[in-house]
Design brief:
- With 407 residues, the protein is of the alpha/beta class.
- The protein has two domains: 4-249, Purple Acid Phosphatase, chain A, domain 2 (4-Layer Sandwich); 254-405, no CATH class.
- Helices cover 30% and strands 25% of the residues.
- Strands 4-3-2-1-11-12 form a six-stranded mixed beta sheet, with helices on one face.
C-alpha cells in the first residue's frame, strides 16, 4: 500500500497584531481589522479540517510579541482543541517574536500539540496506522535572536521512516531586507537530504526551490501596507517519490495598492466619480484596505490636497463603500503630479532650478531622524523603505513647485 501524508504548512500568525498606520479609521472598522488575525486563524483551522490533513506545521511567530496576550493564547488553544476533535496533530515552534523566555504566561495546549521546547534541533515522529510515517524536525527560539547556522544540526533520526520534514524559522544569508536569524543558504538545505523544508520568518510567500520543496508560506494575514495581496498557507501532499503543493488564501482582510489616473478631471467632483468607478470595478472576496495613488498631469491635485478637498472626497468615497459586506476603505492617498516648465531658464540658473537640484540630492533621512528617535513616536511608526523616502521627497517637491508656480 502506498504511503502518503497530507499537511498544512503555515507560519507567522502574529495573533493580536497592533496594525500600525490606521489612525484615521473609525473605531468599529478598526476593531474588525484587529480581529482579522484571529479570523485568519479560524480559516486555517477550517481549511485543515476540510482537507482532512494529518497534521499542521506552524513555524514560528505565532504571536506578535514576546508578551503574548491571554486573548491570543486562548484563541490558539481553542483552535488546537478544534483540530484535536478532528484527529489532526499540530507541530509548532516559537520564533523571534514569541521566543520562549519572553512568555510570562505560558498556556497548556491539548495533547495533539507538539512544541519544540528549546534551541536544540529535535524531532517528533508522526504515526499512522500503527507505524511511523513521518519525522518532523525543528527548534524554538529561547531568546529574541538566533544567529548561529542551525541547518548543520538537522540530522535524520531513522532512515526507515518514509518522510522527513524540517521546519526552520530563519532567513537566507543574502537577505538584506530583514533581520538575519538562523541564516542559511538554499544549497545547504538541498544537500541535507530532507523531503520538505517548511520555513518561517519572511512574510512574503515564496517557493525557493522544488525537489525538495523549500517554501516560505508568508504570514496568514497582512498587517500593513507593506504586506499586500493574498496571505495564507500551503496544503502539501506527499507520497513516495511525489510531492504536490497548493497555496490556499486565509486572509480575512486584504491590503492592496491601486493607481487611479485622474488626468482628465477638471473639478474635484470629477475626481470623486472616477475614484468611485474604479473601486466598483474591484471584485474582492474579502474586505480591502487600499493604498491609493492618484496620478494627474498638470492638474490641480496638489491644490486640492492643500485645501483638504481630496481628504473630504476620500472620506465620502469610504462612507459609500463601508456598509457592503466586502467593504473597501482607502487608508492612504498619494498623489503624483507632473509639471511642464516651458521656460528652460527655470531649470537652469533660476532659483527654482537650484531648488529642484537640491531636493534631488538631499537625503530625506537627515530631516526626519528626530521623529524616528522620539521615545513615544517610534513606538507607532515603522522605519521607512527607500521607496517610501522617495515618495515623501516627491510630495514635498510637488507642493513646493505648486506654490511657487501657481501664479
Amino acid at each position: 500500500m502506498e504511503k502518503k501524508i497530507t499537511f498544512i504548512h503555515a507560519a507567522d500568525l502574529h495573533l493580536d497584531s497592533p496594525f500600525k498606520g490606521l489612525s484615521n479609521i473609525g473605531e468599529s472598522l478598526f476593531q474588525e481589522i484587529r480581529k482579522s488575525t484571529f479570523n485568519a486563524l479560524d480559516n486555517l483551522v477550517k481549511t485543515a479540517i476540510k482537507k482532512k490533513v494529518d497534521f499542521v506545521l506552524l513555524v514560528g511567530d505565532l504571536f506578535d510579541n514576546e508578551k503574548q496576550s491571554l486573548k491570543a493564547q486562548i484563541s490558539l488553544r481553542n483552535a488546537f482543541e478544534e483540530l484535536q476533535r478532528h484527529g489532526i496533530k499540530v507541530y509548532l515552534s516559537y520564533g523571534n517574536h514569541d521566543y520562549i523566555e519572553g512568555n510570562i504566561y505560558p498556556i497548556v495546549y491539548p495533547e495533539n500539540v507538539h512544541v519544540f521546547p528549546d534551541e536544540q534541533v529535535r524531532s517528533f515522529t508522526f504515526e499512522k496506522e500503527n507505524g511511523p510515517l513521518a519525522a518532523i524536525y525543528g527548534f524554538s527560539y529561547e531568546n529574541r535572536a538566533v544567529t548561529s547556522k542551525k541547518v548543520y544540526e538537522y540530522k535524520k533520526i531513522n532512515r526507515d521512516i518514509p518522510f522527513h520534514i524540517a521546519t526552520l524559522h530563519g532567513s537566507l544569508e543574502s537577505n538584506t531586507e530583514h533581520d538575519t536569524y538562523a541564516p542559511f543558504q538554499v544549497g545547504e538545505l538541498m544537500d541535507s537530504d530532507f523531503d520538505y523544508w517548511a520555513l518561517g520568518h519572511i512574510h512574503k510567500r515564496e517557493i525557493l526551490k522544488e525537489n525538495p520543496f523549500i517554501i516560505y508560506p508568508g504570514n496568514i494575514q497582512g498587517r500593513s501596507r507593506k504586506e499586500l495581496g493574498e496571505k495564507g498557507c500551503y496544503f502539501v501532499e506527499m507520497a513516495e517519490g511525489k510531492q504536490t503543493v497548493e497555496f490556499i488564501p486565509l486572509q480575512a482582510i486584504e491590503y492592496n495598492q491601486l493607481t487611479i489616473d485622474v488626468s482628465n478631471c477638471e473639478t474635484i467632483h470629477q475626481v470623486e466619480l472616477v475614484i468611485t468607478e474604479e473601486l466598483r470595478n474591484l471584485h474582492s472576496i474579502v474586505p480591502q484596505l487600499l493604498d491609493v495613488t492618484l496620478k494627474g498631469k498638470e492638474s490641480n491635485l496638489v491644490g486640492w490636497k492643500t485645501e483638504n478637498l481630496l481628504e473630504e472626497i476620500i472620506e465620502i468615497v469610504n462612507d459609500s463603500f463601508q456598509s457592503q459586506k466586502n467593504w473597501l476603505h482607502i487608508f492612504r492617498t498619494t498623489i503624483i503630479e507632473t509639471f511642464t516648465i516651458e521656460d528652460s531658464s527655470l531649470m537652469g540658473e533660476h532659483f527654482i532650478g537650484e531648488l529642484i537640484a537640491n531636493l534631488e540630492e538631499s537625503p530625506i533621512r537627515d530631516h526626519i531622524s528626530d521623529l524616528f528617535q522620539h521615545k513615544q513616536a517610534r513606538i507607532y511608526i515603522d522605519s521607512l523603505s527607500i521607496e517610501e523616502e522617495e515618495l515623501i521627497k516627491n510630495e514635498a517637491k510637488q507642493l513646493l513647485l505648486h506654490e511657487l508656480l501657481k501664479e
